[in-house]
Sequence to fold (141 residues):
Amino acid sequence: MIEPNVAGGLIGGSLIGISSLLMLLLLGRITGISGILTGIITWNKTDGLPWRAAFIGGLILGAVLYQIIFGRPLPLQMQADGVMLVLAGLLVGMGTRLGSGCTSGHGVCGIARRSPRSIVSTVTFMAVAVITVYLTRHVLA
Fold:
């Protein structure tokens, strides 16, 4: 088990909050990753491809810079095979579509704006996540 890093969580959470605030102030948009990625995939000329591509590129670049600066990859343990990961990704995508947003849009930005829909969505996907972890670790294992 990986030991919790309180300072890392505090710094990371603060950076997420600051970047979400800057996105709202500078672009007038919430930081919903699924919506940003969907905008790239379904791009039309009035949709703002440059800022979307820069945002997604920045997410990828951040992980690369972390590895370069600290000389080690992000601590990640994968215990599922490729088929399970693809299935999980498809289910997350379907849930994102059904819930009209993802954890960043609802959980970070929506709750901060006191959106009732986002609060219900966040409680729902957190409850489903807890149930899923329990089932996969204790019932299906």
